[in-house]
């Protein structure tokens, strides 16, 4: 209904306004586009297939131009522009497997496009391939021409050629026929056939096998000949001759000869090649004479066995453990020799390098002093121009131990366990260190690694015991060495701390100098500290190389009265503390004398005053007498205080 109203409106506008210029927009609707395959989407080979593209186009114009495009697997294969409403027909004549694929149709009109859904065409059946060869009988090494045809097929085709059941050739072409050159593998009759496969992405379709053709390959009557002289009983040092030649009529093609042993090419040429040399034990193996004529390869092989004149020498040393500058003997010997060809006198031995200081002492025997450092020796055996070397023998002379040194690790404290180190400056490992006390063996430590140390833990109860320790060092050398006696200081822990006061406790007065002497028993140096009870920090700290020292206080006063003590510590790390001492600072002597004199003066003045009063007032005699008594008592008290 909406479409009808739109068309009606356009027509009325054109009718009622004939004089106006109006450019009407064309309205096109594409719908119901589809693609069909006739007679079917699955057909056999040689069938004619029609692709029908149908669409419903709605437009004002009856003769609307429209463009059709046919696609196969996404690629455009046909394009046509039409002004009719008839269906577009696209014909595939005598379809083949190569026509397989997914087809679709697209229609375009007035800027509008519509595409049908894809539909797959499946074609079945392939023609049987036909094989032709140009020759049925060929000489060895010659090629034949084979032609394989897939009648009526098209597209991308892979052709395969087979010799008996083995594939020997594969080619890809865009035609239904291929011609190849084939060289058959060996002499005899061979059955040849072919097949092909049509590639249609992403699938491939393989044909049946073609007809089989028999081809006979005739052998060339020519062969290589290998000869080895001498034929048998070849010894090292014998002259060896090997030849490679050709037997038979010369071929028309150029030929090449190769003589080799294993992977080593000895000689090459066209007619005859040879090799001459001295037989060696390493020559044991296969010789090959190889003939190449074009692609034809023929060979002849021979094996030789070379008997050793003498075996590779071995070099040994005795004794097994060698020490610097001691006697050693090197022995060089071949374990086996061909006595029928070689007398014992014909085999000689020598040492390399020649500068070695060992001298011959017999056949293959060399003696002398061992070197100071590692040294490499090689034995050389010679006979009839044959030279053989032994493996390198490395002599590593060991070093005897030096006199060990004995020492204390850290400090030796009386009554406590401490560590003794025993060590030699030089010596080959392993080294056994033994600690002795007097003549008694205490313990043994084995040092097997560099930087490893022989450590022993002991203790002593008296300082003089330390000198009884010694140690012994020994490696595989025949001698053991003894150290000197252990010389070390034994630290005695501190004990019996005493705090002495000078002057005596009853004689300490103001303005005196006080000496606090702290003494202990033990090994110096000793660190002394003096304390006053009630104070956390020490009054003084000092270190002395003696067992006692003092702390002096100058100009005493009443404030110095209190309780004092001292502490001491040495390298044994034990702290001892003295008993507390109470110090009372008394009044100074001059103060006492001053108080006494003052009291006497007061007494004298009172007496004088009393006498004067007595004379002037006799009536007051009793009062004066009482006053005299009181003054006398006061003076007595003052005198007593001054005396104290």
From TrEMBL:
It comes from Gasterosteus aculeatus aculeatus. InterPro entries: Ig-like_dom (IPR007110), Ig-like_dom_sf (IPR036179), Ig-like_fold (IPR013783), Ig_Fc_receptor (IPR050488), Ig_sub (IPR003599), Ig_sub2 (IPR003598), IL-40-like_Ig (IPR040878). Residues 1-21 form the signal peptide. Coiled coil: none annotated. GO terms for cellular component: external side of plasma membrane. GO terms for molecular function: transmembrane signaling receptor activity. GO terms for biological process: cell surface receptor signaling pathway; cell-cell adhesion via plasma-membrane adhesion molecules; immune response. Residues 18-122, 224-305, 497-582 form the Ig-like domain. Keywords: Disulfide bond, Glycoprotein, Membrane, Signal, Transmembrane, Transmembrane helix. The chain crosses the membrane at residues 593-614. This is Ig-like domain-containing protein.
């Amino acid at each position: 209904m909406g479409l009808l109203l739109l068309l009606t409106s356009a027509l009325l506008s054109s009718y009622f306004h004939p004089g106006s210029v109006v450019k009407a927009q064309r309205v096109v609707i594409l719908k119901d586009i589809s693609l069909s395959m006739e007679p079917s989407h699955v057909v056999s080979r040689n069938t004619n297939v029609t692709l029908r593209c149908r669409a419903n186009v709605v437009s004002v114009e009856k003769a609307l131009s429209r463009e059709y495009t046919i696609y196969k697997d996404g690629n455009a294969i046909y394009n046509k522009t039409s002004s009719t409403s008839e269906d577009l027909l696209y014909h595939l004549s005598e379809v083949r497997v190569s026509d397989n694929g997914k087809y679709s149709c697209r229609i375009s009109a007035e800027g509008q496009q519509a595409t049908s859904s894809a539909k797959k065409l499946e074609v079945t059946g392939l023609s049987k391939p036909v094989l032709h060869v140009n020759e049925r009988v060929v000489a060895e090494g010659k090629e034949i021409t084979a032609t394989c045809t897939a009648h009526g097929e098209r597209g991308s085709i892979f052709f395969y050629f087979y010799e008996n059941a083995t594939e020997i050739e594969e080619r890809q072409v865009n035609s239904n026929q291929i011609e190849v050159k084939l060289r058959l593998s060996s002499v005899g009759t061979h059955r040849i056939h072919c097949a092909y496969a049509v590639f249609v992405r992403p699938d491939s379709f393989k044909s049946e096998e073609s007809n089989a053709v028999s081809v006979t390959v005739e052998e060339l009557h020519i062969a290589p000949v290998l000869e080895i002289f001498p034929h048998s009983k070849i010894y090292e040092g014998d002259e060896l001759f090997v030849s490679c030649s050709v037997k038979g009529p010369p071929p028309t093609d150029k030929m090449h000869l190769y003589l080799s042993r294993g992977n080593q090419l000895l000689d090459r040429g066209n007619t005859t090649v040879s090799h001459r040399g001295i037989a060696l034990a390493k020559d044991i193996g296969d010789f090959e004479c190889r003939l190449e004529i074009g692609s034809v390869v023929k060979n002849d092989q021979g094996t030789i066995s070379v008997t050793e004149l003498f075996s590779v020498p071995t070099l040994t040393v005795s004794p097994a453990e060698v020490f610097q500058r001691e006697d050693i003997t090197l022995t060089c010997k071949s374990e086996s020799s061909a006595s029928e060809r070689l007398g014992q006198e014909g085999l000689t031995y020598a040492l390399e390098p020649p500068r070695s200081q060992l001298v011959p002492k017999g056949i293959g025997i060399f003696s002398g002093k061992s070197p100071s450092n590692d040294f490499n020796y090689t034995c050389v055996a010679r006979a009839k121009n044959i030279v053989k070397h032994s493996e390198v023998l490395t002599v590593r002379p060991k070093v005897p131990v030096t006199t060990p040194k004995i020492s204390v690790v850290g400090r030796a404290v009386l009554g406590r366990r401490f560590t003794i180190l025993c060590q030699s400056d030089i010596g080959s490992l392993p080294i056994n260190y033994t600690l002795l006390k007097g003549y008694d063996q205490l313990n043994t430590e084995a040092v097997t690694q560099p930087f490893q140390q022989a450590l022993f833990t002991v203790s002593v109860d008296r300082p003089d015991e330390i000198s009884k320790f010694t140690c012994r060092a020994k490696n595989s050398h025949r001698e053991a060495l003894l150290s000197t006696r252990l010389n070390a200081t034994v630290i005695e822990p501190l004990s019996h701390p005493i705090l002495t006061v000078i002057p005596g406790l009853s004689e300490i007065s103001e303005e005196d100098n006080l000496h606090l002497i702290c003494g202990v028993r033990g090994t110096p140096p000793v660190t002394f500290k003096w304390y006053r009870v009630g104070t956390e920090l020490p009054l003084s700290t000092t270190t002395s190389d003696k067992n006692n020292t003092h702390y002096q206080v100058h100009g005493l006063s009443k404030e110095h009265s209190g309780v004092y003590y001292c502490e001491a510590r040495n390298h044994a790390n034990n702290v001892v503390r003295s008993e507390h001492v109470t110090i009372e600072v008394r009044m100074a002597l001059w103060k006492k004398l001053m108080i006494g004199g003052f009291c006497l003066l007061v007494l004298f003045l009172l007496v004088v005053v009393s006498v004067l009063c007595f004379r002037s007032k006799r009536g007051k005699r009793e009062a004066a007498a009482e006053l005299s008594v009181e003054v006398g008592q006061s003076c007595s008290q003052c005198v007593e205080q001054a005396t104290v």
